[in-house]
Design a protein that fits this description.
6-phosphogluconate dehydrogenase C-terminal fold; 13 helices; 362 residues; NAD; ACT-like_dom_sf
Length: 362
């Protein structure tokens, strides 16, 4: 896509050249947009520039149309305030994962927020830094925009244009709605995943060797940066504490029932809590935001180069639309497992066709 096709107009200045900032820069540069970069670390900004996320901002550069603040949450308000003062004609947005705390702090300071629009792309990776940046990081991911009644239409349009150019799906929320929502779907899972993974530390190697997809799924995000999460959780502590208290009550009820499953009603309490999990997971949107559930076919794949590519090619030749794919290696064996999600009505045919072509399925 070239600059004429881009929705974003004018140059963009990004403050903070880590994962999100560099990924935004990479995506906008693919559209031919002039992107300048700034970071407290000369090495970080030089690395992001070397990867093609933009160019280091020079003293004589004209004022940007949009400034994107992609700094850690504990300095977001400071950097936004400085950006509004340094570039009074520009629209300023930030992509911090907490929206209410910076807004309240800027309001407390009496900062004119006419040209400020808080936003947050629901995208990221377990590891940060410009070296992990990707131009397609935001494709198909929600991008929340937090406007208020004083937000000019042109300021809102510019922030939305960036999100759309990067392939994101726009959503509008108040800062409070945003923080409670991410507390549930992002911050609470991070805490649960980290605490669960921490229980692996005293476990014997023999037990760890039995780990399968269930453990990997529930601990995947536990490798996230603790320093960053201390900032995020501290800034959004009220809704997260409320949710942790509710979860603790559920765990206590489950534990009490499991401690003596022979007591009257214990098995029902256990079953009800597990069934509530079934109902909850069914609400998580699937492909294209739908709640449609898929059948899963597990294909055994030899651990040799080109096997996954061959499997995907043959699925296409058979006319089987793959809704999702998950790969798992078998510890100590030269095989892996490809879990392929398909529509239930094609699952039986898919198994038969793949078996006919020599694939082993479970």
């Amino acid at each position: 896509m070239n600059e004429l096709q881009a929705r974003t107009r004018g140059s963009v200045h990004i403050i903070g050249a880590g994962l999100l900032g560099a990924s935004i820069g990479l995506g906008l540069r693919e559209h031919g947009i002039d992107v300048t970069l700034e970071d407290l670390s000369p090495t970080t900004v030089a690395l992001a520039a070397d990867y093609g996320a933009g160019r280091v901002r020079a003293a004589g550069d004209p004022s940007p149309a949009l400034v994107i603040v992609a700094t850690p949450p504990d300095v977001t308000a400071d950097v936004v305030e400085r950006a509004l003062l340094s570039y009074p004609e520009a629209v300023v947005t930030d992509v911090a994962s907490v929206k209410l705390a910076p807004f309240l702090e800027l309001t407390r300071r009496g900062v004119d927020l006419t040209n400020y629009v808080g936003s947050h792309p629901m995208a990221g990776r377990e590891r940060g830094g410009a070296i992990m940046a990707r131009a397609d990081l935001f494709v198909g991911r929600p991008w929340v925009v937090c406007r208020d009644r004083e937000t000019p239409a042109e300021a809102l349009a510019l922030v939305e244009a960036v999100a759309l150019d990067l392939g994101a799906v726009l959503l509008e929320m108040t800062p409070d709605e945003h923080d409670r929502s991410v507390g549930l779907v992002s911050h609470l899972p991070q805490v649960v995943s980290s605490l669960l993974a921490a229980r692996l530390l005293p476990a014997p190697e023999q037990a760890i060797g039995l780990a399968g997809a269930g453990l990997r799924d529930t601990t995947r995000i536990a490798s996230s940066d603790p320093e960053l999460w201390v900032q995020i959780l501290g800034a959004n502590r009220e809704p997260v504490v409320e949710m942790l208290d509710a979860l603790a009550a559920d765990i206590a009820a489950f534990t009490d029932a499991l401690r003596d499953p022979a007591q009257p009603g214990a098995k029902r309490r256990i079953a009800d809590l597990l069934a509530a999990g079934n109902s909850g997971v069914s609400r998580i949107p699937g492909k294209h935001g739908s709640s449609e559930r898929f059948a899963v076919i597990t294909v055994i794949v030899d651990d040799r180069p080109g096997q996954i590519a061959r499997l995907l090619t043959e699925l296409g030749e058979l006319g089987i639309n793959m809704e999702d794919l998950r790969l798992e290696h078998s510890p100590g064996a030269q095989i892996g497992f490809a879990e392929i999600a398909v529509l239930p009505e094609v699952a039986e045919r898919a198994v038969a066709d793949l078996t006919e072509r020599g694939w082993r399925t479970l």
